[in-house]
Amino acid sequence: MFRRVVITGMGVISPIGVGLNNFWEAVKSETCGIAAITRFDASSLPCRVAGEVKNYNGEDYFDRRTVLRTAMFSQFAMIAGGEAWNDSGLDKFTFDDPDRCGILLGNGVGGLEVDDESHYKLFAKGASKIPAMTIPKMICNEASGNLSIYLGIRGSAHVIVTACASSCDAIGFAMDRIRCGRADVMLSGGAESATTEYGIGGFCQLNALSTDFNETPARASRPFDKDRDGFVLGEGAGILVLEELEHAKKRGAKIYAELIGYGASEDAYHITAPSPNGEGGTRAILSAIRDAGLKPNDIDYINAHGTSTPTNDPIETAAIKTAFGEHAYKLAVSSTKGMTGHTLGAAGGIEAIITTLAIRDNFLPATINLDQPDPLCDLDYVPNKGRTGTINAAISMSLGFGGHNSVIAMKKYT
Fold first, then answer.
1. 346 SS3 class
2. pTM reported for the whole predicted model
3. Which CATH superfamily is domain 5-250 in?
4. Residues pairing with 302 in the sheet
5. 380 - beta bridge partners?
6. Cα–Cα distance between 76 and 156 in angstroms, integer?
């Protein structure tokens, strides 16, 4: 028998709010965090909008030495991870065996702003001018390493890199570590910061980003809408405390929801395009539901990947239809990327938090900017305005370049 896993703490930093309560209020009020890029001069690029964390200054959270020695994605992980840790009450708890608490995060591209700066100095002034901390700041595992130092967590600390599926996969793997008895507590989720000239420019070269809404950025990310023209890059971190049920009960922890299933698949089709008809996504959905011990008809809500790209949205819709059959038309589906933008490797963590709070509050978050649905996207996407609705069980989907499909399932704790 698997050990049961519950969610006992959460923390978030995002384009629509810093801190769990601020973030959730922004989701419920359909706040859009997408605006003109301020972090660099984007005037020469086809896409000039992004979901930046507003007015971010690392020295508002850390001493100057820490800021100088860490990339922004690591800082985001420490901010969200610290909030999740405190929210769970573990800041006042002493472990009998500290090795039973670990970290497993997801990340897509590492410290991209560090990479930008160091390459500029390499080409402008030579290799001797590359900053000494370049490598320790930019590599993807540094978020989990820095978070372990920040909180004094001595168990395993790892990172998973599966592009935009990274933090959903991380949560699934972290759940399995607790289920099988290798850990009692895991901090999991993801962090990302790729809003640089290199990051935006690279995605523009793939024709992946929205370019039609530079003058009206709040309308740029429009999942499932007929006029969508690409995704909008976001940034931030979403981290959850996963805990073995009896361990949580013994210390009197509050419980947000129960994490009950994980499924993953590989398209084995194309490096950037999903497999036709979403068959890979379908397999991941059904795997997660089976792992949860549920049937498709038990699912009430899906937080979809919903990137607002011409390719993703109808194929993801097809995957849902195949997995759920007629029930696909009875459940609610929404993409919250219209508000946050696409936070890449952090998306699964941020959206797992949204799904958890949706279950807690019986609230279906909106898909904003859904004015004219694509005819191929004909499900209930909760257009433009969130609403109340009973959610006993839900799934959150993340799909990544490379053909990675990841789905987690959760339910009300009873």
1. helix
2. 0.97
3. Thiolase/Chalcone synthase (3.40.47.10)
4. 333, 395
5. 332
6. 20
**Sequential pLDDT tens for the chain (414 residues):** 789 999 999 999 999 999 999 999 999 999 999 999 999 999 999 999 999 999 999 999 999 999 999 999 999 999 999 999 999 999 999 999 999 999 999 999 999 999 999 999 999 999 999 999 999 999 999 999 999 999 999 999 999 999 999 999 999 999 999 999 999 999 999 999 999 999 999 999 999 999 999 999 999 999 999 999 999 999 999 999 999 999 999 999 999 999 999 999 999 999 988 898 899 999 999 999 999 999 999 999 999 999 999 999 999 999 999 999 999 999 999 999 999 999 999 999 999 999 999 999 999 999 999 999 999 999 999 999 999 999 999 999 999 999 999 999 999 999
The domains spanning 5-250 and 262-411 adopt the same CATH topology:
yes
- Domain map of the chain by residue range? 5-250, 262-411
Reply yes or no on whether 119 is catalytic.
no
And the tokens for 281?
């996504």
Residues forming beta bridges with residue 105, ordered by sequence position: 159, 189
Q: Which among 101, 140, 247, 305 is annotated as catalytic?
A: 305
Beta carbons within 10 angstroms of residue 137's beta carbon:
24
Whole-angstrom distance, CA of residue 272 vs CA of residue 210: 16
Give CA–CA dist 173/105, Å, rounded. 10
Instruction: State the CATH architecture for 262-411.
Output: 3-Layer(aba) Sandwich (3.40)
Q: Is 342 tagged catalytic?
A: yes
Answer yes or no: are the C-beta atoms of 157 and 145 closer than 8 Å: yes
Of residues 47, 101, 140, 164, which has the active-site annotation?
Answer: 164
- Longest Cα separation, the chain: 63
Looking at 101, 168, 247, 342, which residue is catalytic? 342
CB 105 within 8 A of CB 188: yes
Which residues fall within 8 angstroms of residue 308, CB to CB, at 6 or more apart?
210, 220, 221, 222, 223, 224, 225, 228, 230, 231, 232, 335, 337, 338, 342
Q: Provide the residue count of the chain.
A: 414
Can 305 be counted among the known catalytic residues?
Answer: yes
What is the rounded distance in angstroms from the CA atom of residue 288 to the CA atom of residue 267?
16
